[in-house]
Amino acid sequence: MITFKKGIAFKLALIFSGSVTLIFVIIFGAYYSFTRKMIEKNTAENARNLTLGTVARIDGILRSVQQVPENMAGTLERGTVNKEELIGLIKSAVEKNPEIYGYGISFAPYAFDKNSLYMSPYYCRANKSLSWLGSDTYQYLLADWYQIPKELGKSRWSEPYYDEGGGNILMATYSVPFYRLVNGKRTFTGVITADMSLQWLREMMAAIKILDTGYAFLLSKNGNFVTHPDHTFIMNETIFGVAESLGDKKLRGIGRGMIGGQAAFVHTQRLDAGKPGFLYYTPVTSSGWSLAVLFPQDELLADLTHLNWLVLLLSAAGMLVLFGVVVSEARSITGPLTHMADATAEIAAGNLDVKMPETRSEDEVAILSRAFSAMQLSLKNHIARLTEATAARERIESELNIARDIQLSILPKIFPPFAGMPELDLFAVLKSAREVGGDLYDFFTVDEDNFCFVIGDVSGKGVPASLFMAVTKTLFKATAVSGTPPEVVLDNVNTELSRGNDKAMFVTAFFGILNIKTGVIAFSNGGHNLPVVMRKDGSVKYLWKTGGMVVGAMEGMKFEPGTLTLAPGDRLFLYTDGVTEAMDKNKVLFSDERLLRELEQLHGLPVKEVLNRLLAMLVDYSGGDQSDDITMMLLEYKGRS
Amino acid sequence: MNISTKKEASALLVTVAGRMDAVTAPEFEKSILDFIAQGERNFLINLSGLEYISSAGLRSILASAKRLKEQNGKLVFSGLQGHVKEVFSISGFHGIFKIYDSDAEGLKGF
Hints:
The complex is a heterodimer. Chain A is built from 14 helices and 22 strands. Chain A has helices at 8-78, 83-96, 144-152, 199-206, 239-246, 249-259, 297-300, 302-348, 364-409, 462-479, 486-498, 577-580, 592-601, 607-621, and strands at residues 100-107, 121-124, 129-132, 156-157, 161-163, 169-182, 185-197, 215-219, 225-227, 264-269, 276-284, 289-296, 424-431, 439-445, 450-458, 507-515, 520-526, 532-534, 540-542, 561-565, 571-575, 630-637. The longest helix of chain A has 71 residues, at 8-78. Chain B is an alpha/beta fold. Chain B has one domain: STAS domain (Transcription Regulator spoIIAA), CATH 3.30.750.24. Chain B has helices at residues 25-37, 55-70, 82-90, 93-96, 103-108; strands at 2-7, 12-20, 42-53, 74-78, 98-100. In chain B, strands 1-2-3-4-5 form a 5-stranded mixed beta sheet. In chain B, α1 runs parallel beside α2. Chains A and B meet through loops of A and α2, α3 and α4 of B.
């Protein structure tokens, strides 16, 4: 079972999908931001075009109304008119200009008639009646439309207002101050007012359609709503009031910009619903109003939003497909790996015949699989060979053990050797190394007085060495006949062993003949370790050198004779290099010097005891890892009592 | 055991270092026999770096020398010291092989 949840497949899919998602998000983000900016830019452009015409039309209408009182101000300033002419002027102004709802000329106190405080004829289109303003109850001299132009000395549109008397319609009044020269001084004489219904303005603004829920509105100089789709706003709310109630500081800033006569495209909240939108505002210069158009953001970006959803949906679907593809592809890679792991585990458990998974492609996994199969095969072969080799080695080892047994069995093992020979005490040991070696020792009598002894070490190890040793021992015994001096015995043995000895095997041997009557030893040394002479007084020393080539190496070698005399109680210690060359775990040799020291310490002990103690010491020294045969022989001459 | 060789004008200088025992001696013997097969006849064996030699080592030297003798070649030694010198002395090898103190002397001997 593939546990891909934490496996390579899952990780791979995760990494792929994650990376692709990241890339997509970046691209999408950039695309969205760019598109949105473009839409905003287009919208701003549209808004500008849209408002341009409207503002021009409003300005045109307002200017045409402004024209009338302004022209009349010029007329009044240039010359005096009588009452009838004044009424005629007023009437004709209303009749000739359909936009004008009411028209009046209000003189400053006593300016028209020295006897009259008020002079203010007003003609209204609705009831086609001329009325005279100014009375104790209506002090037009204190009204805004009179006071403000007078004080500012400038023509001016009033704030729009509801004319409560005339049908409750929204109106605005244009007031123009006019002057006359009195005693050469330009003196304020009165104010001409043209009232205008703003009904057309509402209709014009209502005609501006912006998407489905967008709209246009007009703000007065003071920030009052002159038009707004929601009629309750009109002359009832200021933009600052709305900003206050929404807690929108930005809107307040926008309001300041609008009444300041600026134009801008800003992102804001919708004034009514609190939803986001884009606002474009531009001034209506003639009246100081501000025309604004609001684009609801959701509608404006609706296409973009739809596109976003579509792209997101497609991306999610694509991501799912990608995820699936990656997982399936990765599983096709990891599947064989998992099988391989199982197969390997089985191989590890010892089943070498398990089949590696088949691979279709030529990828790395296939290579790995083939490599595994190859490994499996070679492992199988190797194990087969190893099994064979082990069997062979076991057979050889058992043969070696037999060889060792034979080697040991042909050595004399009865001590003391000759019950009827009180002149002599002797003990010998041979401890084989793990691998059979070629050490040997032997002793025998050749006649009544002469006792022969030999110790030797065949070069090398194993079966060849043990065979060579057996031959050597036999040759010594056969050659050492009564009366033959030791060097001749060695010579003869050498000659026999040298023949056909291609392998250049040889034996080092020390051969001696002790005359048990006299204690004199005649000996010859064939390249063997020097024996130690242990005197009765406890002194120990190596036998002097006699030279001599190893035995069996080369034909025609001459061996030197030597003699040594033992007094009763003297001993001769013979050994092989397994003693002096015993090694501790640091490969340090036991050494000739150490051997001499130890023998000195063991002075006076029985011969058997001396060898046993030495052997124990050597076994201990080599730490149980004996590398060579250890052979020792200790001979004591007791003399004739 | 470490064996290195250097071809000199008169002989092949073989330097043996380490230990020559039952385990490593066959390696020595094989390398000498290989050189003989390649046509080398004169060998100077420098044993100054040899710490230990067992009877198996002696045997491999002897076997090499025997083979060389059949081919009218020659095997000499230099740089013997310590244990090795002692073993050569006891085993009588110093009697059948020429042993020099230095390589220079040994090379002159061919």
